[in-house]
Amino acid sequence: MAVRKLLVAGNWKMNLNHLEGIALVQKIAFTLPDKYFDKVEVAVLPPFTDLRSVQTLVDGDKLKLVYGAQDVSPHESGAYTGDISGSMLAKLGCTYVAIGHSERRDNHYEADAVVNSKVKAAYRHGLTPILCVGEGLEVREAGNQIEHSVSQLLGALEDVTAEQAASIVLAYEPIWAIGTGRVATPADAQEVCGALRAALATKYSAELAEGVRVLYGGSVKAANVAEIVAQADVDGALVGGASLDATEFATLCANTVGILA
Ligand SMILES: O=C[C@H](O)COP(=O)(O)O
């Protein structure tokens, strides 16, 4: 039986300048007891502009949390104005990179092929993708959430080897739950997270699928995280709004495994 270490990742989105980011990371680190980090991996995903500051703080104070980026260019270098390459993120000590978030798929017209190219770019530079999939309300109401999310997963994994996929993190984020306060029920989360794991087993192997961490995201708060993460195929959370407040985020992390902050 694979032992999957829980992961709570805070996606700051387009919030907190580098000074505010330093303050938030310091408060999170000082609020969570060291014993916590033995049970749950805690990551923050700041805006690009904050990464160097977060790196300096984490390295300098030997903090136990890790960090990553919210996107990555599919290109290596060159005339791609505004892009940030995987090599640049690796140089900044990033562990993770979120790829395919619905806010990128929608606002930047990122089709599955683009998401796939970013997944491969992440692996070229030793970054672990947090691959985001999830359906809109109209798909949910039609009952097609599993087909939709599995299709996004398989589109993102085109030409991705088993060796690479073994380390991937998936995040099921129903769009109708993002930023709305309408969190998915534990059963909703389990249904799709379980289907994503089954799809990995079919594409690669049952052993690989058992080892991959599948997160839920969408209005996760300290008050609701425990019942969601208690589901068999949910291995943590990708947290937006609640990650911007140190006390809420630290309590959310602690509640993930029932450790009081
Ligand atoms: O990446 C995080 C998800 O978009 C969830 O955001 P939220 O917790 O604000 O609903």
Q: Can you give a write-up of this model?
A:
The protein is α/β, with parallel strands linked by helices. The chain has one domain: TIM Barrel (Alpha-Beta Barrel), CATH 3.20.20.70. The protein is built from twelve helices and eight strands. It has helices at residues 18-31, 51-60, 86-91, 102-107, 112-124, 137-141, 145-156, 162-165, 186-203, 206-211, 225-229, 246-256, and strands at 6-11, 40-45, 66-69, 96-99, 128-133, 169-172, 213-217, 236-239. Strands 1-2-3-4-5-6-7-8 form an eight-stranded parallel barrel, surrounded by five helices. Helix 3 (86-91) links the parallel strand 3 (66-69) and strand 4. Helix 1 runs parallel beside helix 2 and helix 7 packs across helix 9. The two termini are 29 Å apart. The structure holds glyceraldehyde-3-phosphate.
Write the layout of secondary structure elements.
Layout (H helix, E strand, L loop, with lengths): L5 E6 L6 H14 L8 E6 L5 H10 L5 E4 L16 H6 L4 E4 L2 H6 L4 H13 L3 E6 L3 H5 L3 H12 L5 H4 L3 E4 L13 H18 L2 H6 L1 E5 L7 H5 L6 E4 L6 H11 L5
Parallel strand pairs: 1-2, 1-8, 2-3, 3-4, 4-5, 5-6, 6-7, 7-8
The structure holds glyceraldehyde-3-phosphate.
The site of glyceraldehyde-3-phosphate has 14 residues, from strand 8.
